[in-house]
């Protein structure tokens, strides 16, 4: 299926499915090799929902269908479609009375996370969420070193705004080790990121 952006450029849905290797954390990761960060977060969110901990979902991206084929009377195949608008962030929901909004990204880089993985409309969206007292953050995975970090949106925004002034195009891993929160794989949930969100909530309520 071919989906086109508003500017007319094509986007291959099949190509988007070609994901990076799953991050390993000791022996806990061996049974889940091949899963993407998105799939692992979806699995974690399903666990949180099933046990009444939080309601967090991946945001659907609205598309405009242009061409549909009907190879069979009972089946329809979308052949061409367009994204109606640029997406904001990947996930949103509610936890302990707080609105959560976050993006999930992966990189093959070993020592830094490229800022080009983000877009201005995503930064603007997170700024709006922060102004409404929401909890906004990003979950970043280094596939080469098997490490995941949660970084608060305020820090990401600062790096984004300083990249023009300082010429820096990425967030160094050493910086993430200082200002981010490292996440470690578990069994259920797979990525227990709400443990870190609890710490963020505690800071807000001080």
Provide the fold topology.
Elements lengths: L1 E3 L5 E3 H4 L20 H14 L4 E4 L4 E10 L2 E9 L7 E5 L2 E10 L4 E3 L5 H12 L3 E8 L4 E6 H14 L3 E3 H7 L1 E3 L10 H11 L2
Parallel strand pairs: 1-5, 7-9
Antiparallel strand pairs: 1-2, 3-6, 4-5, 6-7, 8-11, 9-10, 10-12
Helix pairs in contact: 3-4
Gist?
With 206 residues, the chain is α+β, with helices and mostly antiparallel strands. It has helices at residues 13-16, 37-50, 120-131, 153-166, 173-179, 194-204; strands at residues 2-4, 10-12, 55-58, 63-72, 75-83, 91-95, 98-107, 112-114, 135-142, 147-152, 170-172, 181-183. The chain has 6 helices and 12 strands.
Kindly state the number of beta strands. 12
**What is the overall shape?**
globular
The number of domains: 1
Major sheet: arrangement of strands: 3-6-7-9-10-12
Uncertain stretches of 5 or more adjacent residues: 11-32
Distance between the termini: 50 Å
Looking at the structure, the CATH topology is Trna Endonuclease, Chain: A, domain 1
Rg, Å, rounded: 18 Å
Helix content range of the residues, please? Answer: 25-40%
Measured by DSSP, the beta-strand proportion falls in 25-35%
- The average pLDDT is 82
